[in-house]
Write a structure and sequence with these properties.
Layout: H1 4-8, H2 12-20, H3 27-44, H4 48-51, E1 59-62, H5 69-80, E2 84-88, H6 104-141, H7 149-153, H8 165-187, E3 194-202, H9 215-221, H10 225-228, E4 231-239, H11 240-255, H12 258-272, E5 274-278, H13 292-308, E6 311-314, E7 317-320, E8 325-330, H14 342-346, E9 350-353, H15 359-367, H16 373-382, E10 387-390, H17 392-408, H18 415-424, H19 426-431, E11 439-442, H20 444-456, H21 458-464
Parallel strand pairs: 1-8, 1-9, 2-5, 5-8, 10-11
Antiparallel strand pairs: 3-4, 6-7
Length: about 475
């Protein structure tokens, strides 16, 4: 990796600015992940012997649900273009118990990286694949007579000189017809025409997979399992538009060098991979208890070598986890990070506490992000011809009610807005197709009227929201 690579990765300030488009507040958490991402690229520019010594600074994010923990990690992976996987800590069980072992998260991450590398390679060969797919489509639209197949295979075709004159005229006429159809195909004149194509599909037998295992896990346990599955040729009648996509994908598959794809993917996983472990507080067992708590602490012990750095065998090859970045998150209501086993605590040196959302935060969440909830509802109702206008005062009132309900009942963060907005616009959404009045204004008085019972009755707000 050269120094130019450093300039291809956004600066920490740019990363925070990009995260601000989707996540309100939580600046401390944004800064921590932005620095962690930049450090990954910085490490690659160090001398080889020093690279091995620089370990990633894993992060624990603490805070109630719905305040942006998962969203920060998800958006970060998009910015980095790095292999990313979000897993639930509660999905895994200690070795010896029925369920998925913690190493499967690295196998899943590797599969994601292979698919990413494959997609990148597909873009590189797309033009060549399109040409080849076009030829196959031409063969379906203008079937080549058996007598001419050899001549098509050799474009300079000296054989045509030895043809009888009558045969030569037919041959040239066929070529002209084919060229005309090719031009029409390029202009998209056959998009809605239906043709029959043959595709190969893998047939998977009805096998029971134990303990929540995936097909990747089965393929790992039984090497080559997926390749053993028979391929069935199936004939489909589809439009030329759809056939293009199918044939381009098939031709791209032939052009891609899978060894190169896997090599690139393994390197990306080891140096740029990000694993987001959610609900890590749920694998903290109560002291002195037996039963499920034993397995919980066992998951922590199994997780330790992976976070510390070990070699995990996947169906694509061995992955060293020494430089994979781990971001853990949890609400930590009934527990705290210091309740994790000491060795695991030491492997998460950075701890960031995310703050509960205020009514001001709720106002910004409703208006500022690119995917703001108000924008989503306005666009949804626009499909029914309804012009929805939400006044600024009504947004203030929605934010105040959301904050009040979160304070008085369970704090579920920004997710509270989903239930409040749904309740607020329930009647409009229901009657939208029959409504004659196509302009609707949401005022503060309307918000208070629709949400009055929920805001005032604590028991009712618990039940509905």
């Amino acid at each position: 990796m050269n120094k130019e690579s450093l300039f291809n990765v956004p600066k920490p300030s740019q990363i925070v600015k990009e995260l601000d488009k989707y996540i309100i507040g939580q600046q401390e958490a944004k800064k921590a992940v932005a620095i962690a991402l930049r450090n990954r690229v910085r490490r690659k520019l160090l001398p080889q012997e020093l690279q091995e010594e620089v370990a990633p600074k894993n992060i624990i994010m603490m805070g109630p649900t719905g305040i942006g923990k998962t969203e920060i990690a998800r958006r970060l992976s998009n910015l980095a273009g790095a292999p990313f996987i979000k897993v639930e800590a509660t999905k895994y069980t200690e070795v010896g118990y029925v369920g998925r072992d913690v190493e499967s998260m690295i196998r899943d991450l590797t599969s994601i990286a292979v698919n990413m590398s494959k997609s990148e390679m597909e873009k590189e060969v797309e033009q060549e694949a399109r040409k080849m797919a076009e030829e196959r489509l031409l063969d379906l639209l203008v079937p080549v007579p058996e007598a001419y197949k050899k001549k098509i295979a050799s474009p300079d075709s000296k054989v045509s000189h030895t043809m009888p004159e009558e045969e030569k005229i037919k041959w040239e006429k066929f070529n002209k017809t084919r060229d005309k159809i090719r031009e029409k195909l390029k202009k998209g004149e056959f998009e809605d025409k239906y043709i029959e194509i043959s595709t190969k599909e893998k047939v998977f037998p009805a096998v029971e997979i134990f303990g929540g295992m995936s097909m990747d896990d089965l393929d790992f346990m039984l090497p080559g399992f997926s390749n053993m599955m028979p391929k069935k040729t199936k004939k489909k009648r589809i439009s030329v538009k759809e056939a293009k996509k199918v044939l381009v994908a098939e031709e791209a598959e032939k052009l891609i060098d899978m060894d190169k794809v896997i090599g690139t993917a393994l390197e990306k996983v080891e140096n740029m991979g990000i694993v987001f472990i959610d609900e890590i507080d749920k694998i903290i067992g109560s002291e002195g208890k037996s039963g499920p708590d034993v397995s919980r602490e066992g998951v922590q012990r199994d997780l330790l070598p992976i976070v510390e750095g070990t070699s995990v065998m996947t169906k694509y090859g061995v992955i060293r986890t020494n430089h994979i970045l781990f971001i853990a998150a949890g609400a930590f209501h009934g527990a705290k990070p210091s309740d994790l086993i000491p060795e695991l605590q030491g492997r998460f040196p950075l701890r960031v506490e995310l703050k509960s959302l205020t009514d001001k935060d709720f106002e910004e969440i409703l208006t500022k992000p690119k995917n703001a909830l108000t924008i989503q509802y306005i666009e949804l109702l626009k499909t029914e011809g309804i012009e929805l206008e939400i006044e600024e005062e009504s947004i203030n009132e929605i934010a105040r009610i959301a904050h009040k309900v979160n304070t008085e009942t369970e704090d579920i963060g920004a997710r509270r807005l989903h239930t409040i907005m749904e309740k607020l616009l329930e009647d409009i959404s229901f009657h939208a197709p029959e409504m004659k009045k196509k302009k609707m204004k949401i005022t503060r008085a309307y918000v208070q009227k629709r949400l009055k019972d929920i805001a005032e009755d604590r028991d009712l707000s618990r039940y509905i929201l």
